[in-house]
Each structure stands twice: as C-alpha cells, then as structure tokens.
Specification:
By secondary structure, the chain is mainly α. The protein has 3 domains: about 1-70; about 90-145, no CATH class; about 145-225, no CATH class. Helices cover about 65% and strands about 0% of the residues. The protein contains 9 helices and no strands. The protein has helices at about 10-15, 20-50, 55-60, 65-70, 75-110, 125-145, 150-170, 180-195, 200-220. Helix 4 (about 65-70) runs antiparallel to helix 5 (about 75-110) and helix 7 (about 150-170) packs across helix 9 (about 200-220). The longest helix has about 35 residues, at about 75-110. The protein is globular and about 60 Å long.
C-alpha cells in the first residue's frame, strides 16, 4: 500500500504531449510533488503518532480516523472520511486520465484495436479509450474484491517502471536531463521491490505477462489483425493548429 501512495509521480510524464514546455515543467512537477507529499505524509504520521501513541497506532486499522475522532470529536472523524473519499476519487480520475492516454497511444500504434486511438473531434480527448477503460474498471470494481490483486498489480507497475528505466538508459547524452545513475538506481530499486513481493504474486504476474506477450505475437504474426505499421507518436494528443 505504501508503494501505491507514491505512484502518481509518473502521470505527469505520461501527459507530456499535452504539457507546455515539458522538458522544464515535468521535472519541477515530479520533484515538487514528491516533496510536498513527503512533508504532508510525515506531518500526518507524526500527528497521529502523537495522539494515539505507537502501540495503539500499530494495532488500529484506521489510525487516522481514530486519531481525528479522539482529538477533535465526531467532526474530526467526518473530515477524515470526507478526505478519504476525495482522495479515492482523485486517484480514480488520475488513473483514468493517464491510462486512457496509454490506451490511446497503443491504439494509434496498432498495439490495441485502432478505434482506441481516435480522439473526439471537438473536445480533443481520447473518448473511446476513456469510456472503455472506465467501463472495464467499473465492472471489475463492482464484481470482485480487487484488494487481493494489489500485489499482482504491483508486478505490472514495476515491470512498467523497469522498462522505462531501461529505455532511459538507451537515450543519447543530449537527450538526457540528468545522469544515467538515476536510471540505474531506479532499475535496481524496482528489482528489489519485485523480490520483496510474495512469490505467488510474482509468479502470477509473470504468467499473465507471458500470456499477453504470446497473444500479441499471435495477434500480429497470424493475421488475427493486419499489422498496419507502427506509427510514430509524440506522447500526447495532437493539438489543433
């Protein structure tokens, strides 16, 4: 869970094609966002620890709610509940925003059905990708307890990060914003996190990824769908002239 609380930093990079001056803006957004989050997390944790104490905090499943109720009363608990709902909603919107852009790019490059790679003629958003992913998530969330799959989902996210770090190492010197050391550290960190996950989650993730890779191979090689050629893409939705 701690890992997932920090995963939002990569969303800015995914939206690079829709950001003005991304080379300057994205590093500031990522570093600033992580810095602000770290300060808030530390402040909240310190306050909760001060109110409940280490033993009570360690035993409680909802320490923030308990601390707010104990310190402020009923209104404190209600504020924490409202904040939790707001945070959950912002997480869903943020994930949908970036996941739809990934689906859009893959659809445009014929890695997914091509209709996912279209944009709304008026609003300039990947409407098909947004609606498709939103509906899939809605059905899954209402049908299953997805908390048990959190560890497996971590494998997919870490695989994404590993590929990103490896790709960053292939950049030429003039394309880099900083030293390759950060990519190596990130790559090693991701591998260590993979090693820390439950064995069943790692094996399940590997099986799913291998299955998807095999399906992709068949998808292109045996004419399930004609490969229209990979289209170069700048990482965002084209802007109107």
């Amino acid at each position: 869970m701690f890992f997932w609380t920090w995963d939002g930093f990569m969303r800015t990079a995914i939206m690079a094609g829709e950001i003005k001056n991304p080379r300057r803006t994205i590093p500031i957004a990522i570093i600033g966002g992580i810095g602000v989050a770290a300060v808030v997390f530390l402040a909240v944790a310190a306050t909760t620890l001060g109110v409940l104490g280490p033993e009570s905090m360690g035993r409680d499943d909802v320490p923030l709610f308990r601390a707010a109720t104990q310190a402020v009363g009923t209104w404190g608990g209600l504020i924490i509940l409202a904040a939790a709902w707001t945070a959950s909603l912002s997480e869903l919107v943020g994930d949908l925003l970036t996941a739809s852009r990934v689906a859009y790019t893959m659809g445009e490059a014929n890695e997914l059905p091509g209709w996912l790679g279209s944009i709304h003629p008026k609003f300039r958003i990947p409407r098909n990708a947004v609606l498709t992913i939103g509906l899939i998530v809605l059905v899954l969330a209402l049908s299953f307890d997805l908390r048990k799959l959190l560890a497996v989902a971590s494998i997919f996210t870490l695989t994404w990060y590993i590929i990103t770090h490896f790709s960053a190492l292939q950049l030429r010197k003039e394309q880099r914003l900083t030293t390759p050391l950060f990519s190596w550290l990130g790559l090693i960190g991701c591998l260590l996190l993979v090693a820390s996950l439950p064995t069943w989650a790692t094996l399940s993730g590997i099986v799913v990824l291998a299955t998807l890779a095999g399906f992709r191979l068949l998808w292109f090689r045996y004419g399930v769908r004609k490969f229209a050629g990979r289209v170069g893409h700048g990482g965002g939705i084209p802007k109107e002239a």
